[in-house]
Amino acid sequence: MSLLEIKDLHTYFDTKRGLIKAVNGVSLTIEEGRTLGVVGESGSGKSQTAMSILKLFEQNQKIYSGEIYFDGKKISDLNAQQMSHIRGNDISIIFQEPMTSLNPIFTVNRQISEVLMLHQKLSKKEAEKRSIEMLQQVKIANPVQVNKSYPFQLSGGMRQRVMIAMALACRPKLLIADEPTTALDVTIQAQILRLMNDLKHELGTSIMFITHDLGVINQMADDVAVMYCGQVVESAPVENIFRGSEYLHPYTEGLLTSIPRLNSERTERLDAIPGSVPHPLALPEGCKFAPRCKYACDKCRKEEPELVKVGENHSIRCFYPVKRGEK
C-alpha cells in the first residue's frame, strides 16, 4: 500500500526575473515500510520536493499544481495549522546540518521534549523520560548526560543522533532524511546509516532518503528516484539500477560511471558528466539533459520526453532508454 503519493507536482519560486521551477512535474510513490532513495546533483529539486511535502516554503514559493497524498489523505490542500499537526508527528525530517537545525541555547531534553509535549500531550516529566529512552534507542552511550547537554557540547555524530532521536520521538510513519550524513566523516556516516536501517525495521517507518551519493543509495534504498532539473528522469527498484537492467537513463549511467571502485584495476580518469546543471531560469528546450548527454540527437534537443514505463515499476524519461554505455 502506498504511504505517500505525489502526482505531477509543480512547486515554483516567484522572483523578479520570473518563475523558478524548482519542482517541475514530479510524481513519486513511497510504499509502507520501504525506503525511497532520491538522488541527483545539487539543484536537481530533491530538497524542494521534500519541503513541498511538508509545506516548508519561502514567502515567494508555493505549489502551483499537483497533488500530494499521505496515508490516503490529500495533504497538498491543507493550511498551515492543519499541517502543523502532521509535521513532526506523522512526517518527520532530518536536515543536512544538525548544528543549524538544533537550537544552541536549549538543551537536548528541551528540544526533544517539546515535540513530545506538543504532539503526544505528555507531561514535562514523561517527556524527559521518553527523551532519554529515545537517546538510548539511537545508541548514545550516556543518554542522561547528553539529555542535559547543549548542542555545541556534542560532536557532529552525536548531534546527528540527537536529530534522529527527535525526528523519531513520535513514531512517525514517514521519515525524510535530507542528506543527513554529508557533514560527517566516513566512519560516523556508516554508523548513522546502519542506525537508520535498524530503526526502520524496529519501528516500521518508511524513509525518503535524499542524497547525491549513489553508494549510499545502494546501501539504504529499496527503490530509487533519479532527479534532474526538478523532474524525475528515472524511477526503479534499486536492483534495476545497480544489478542489471536492459534500460538505463543516460544521466543515471553518468552518475554510476563517475563512482570510483576499490576493486577496479582501471588507472585512467573516471568518466565525468560534462557541463553543469542548467540555471532554472534558462532551462534548455527539449530534454533537459540533452546538452550534457553523449547520446543526444536532434529530437532530444527539440522535444521533451515523457516519463514512460519500460518495465514493472521502472520508468524512464528518455526517447531511447535502452542501455548503451557500459555501467
Describe what you observe in this structure:
The protein is an alpha/beta fold. The protein has a domain at 2-79 and 210-316: P-loop containing nucleotide triphosphate hydrolases (Rossmann fold), CATH 3.40.50.300. It is built from twelve helices and twelve strands. The strands form two sheets. An eight-stranded mixed β-sheet has the order 6-7-8-3-9-10-12-11, sandwiched between helices. Strands 2-1-4-5 form a four-stranded antiparallel β-sheet. The model has no long low-confidence stretch (mean pLDDT 89). It is a peripheral membrane protein. Its main location: membrane. Keywords: ATP-binding, Cell membrane, Membrane, Nucleotide-binding, Transport. Belongs to the ABC transporter superfamily.
Counted beta strands: 12
* SS field, number of helical segments: 12
Q: What series of H and E elements makes up the topology?
A: EEEHEEHEHHHHHEHEHEEHHHEE
Which runs of at least 5 residues are low in confidence (pLDDT < 50)?
Answer: none
Q: What's the CATH superfamily of one domain, by name?
A: P-loop containing nucleotide triphosphate hydrolases
The geometry reads as globular
Question: Beta fraction of the residues?
Answer: 15-25%
What is the top-level CATH class of one domain? Alpha Beta
CATH architecture of one domain: 3-Layer(aba) Sandwich
Order of strands in the sheet with the most strands?
6-7-8-3-9-10-12-11
Q: What is the radius of gyration?
A: 21 Å
Overall mean pLDDT stands at 89
* Helix/strand/pairing category: alpha/beta
Helix coverage percent: 25-40%
The third-level CATH topology of one domain is Rossmann fold
- Intertermini distance: 32 Å
- Main sheet? 8 strands, mixed
